[in-house]
Input
Amino acid sequence: MKSILDNRPALAVEVNRVAEVAGYLWQKGWAERNGGNITVNITEHVDDVIRNLPAISEVKQIGAILPHLKGCYFYCKGTNMRMRDLARFPMENGSVIRILDDCASYVIIADAPVRPTSELPSHLSVHNYLIGKGSPYKASLHTHPIELIALTHGKKFLEKDVATNLLWSMIPETKAFCPRGLGIIPYQLPGSVEMAEATIQELADYDVVMWEKHGVFAVDCDIMQAFDQVDVLNKSAQIYISAKNMGFEPEGMSQEQMKEMTVAFNLPK
Output
């Protein structure tokens, strides 16, 4: 069976990177059953042959008008598909979609008519926002990192930047590799319009947003970098929880030490 990836090495790299990350999510226990979603803007890798491919699905409505996505193409994890399966067979557990000229609908064009994630409207709304503000970010990731979710069951960590400063203080690399910290969104119905709107608002200040008692949503230039940000934040949460389990409150880096890091690595203040 021919694949849209055939003879397109740059596109194959992007999709295989998604498959690699999907494997990591499963191995870490962050993607139970069909949990989590990945959407990547692959428009830059699309050639005339792909643009002329016929639809292999009926026209599907997004549920919103997203003007910056006109003519864009996305690789999307399929709804009800498991990350562990996507890691082995990305084009059987995901699909490529084309946004139509009305900016409100899409069709699937490859490889199989696998319907994208049920949270596609939220993901596409974020991509529309990113393009609109001229961001280089092309990838969005939603996953369920265990220790970060555990923190959101404590009310003090839901206050603005409390979790960010705690996680930065656990190990220097966290501030270096996730310099914008962690945004917090109080519990909302998963997949709701309200959740999407709140996420977009938080992404003005953060690259990783925590959905209370649910999971994280991260954006970056590619899916591996989005994963890396979540990975370093969750490592800090693990360090904090490990210290608590040893019976003491971890001291953490001081504010002076973190300011020193900010200057040394030329990080956002």
The first strand starts at residue 37 and ends at 41. Residues 146-269 form a domain with the L-fuculose-1-phosphate Aldolase fold (CATH 3.40.225.10). DSSP finds ten helices and nine strands in the chain.
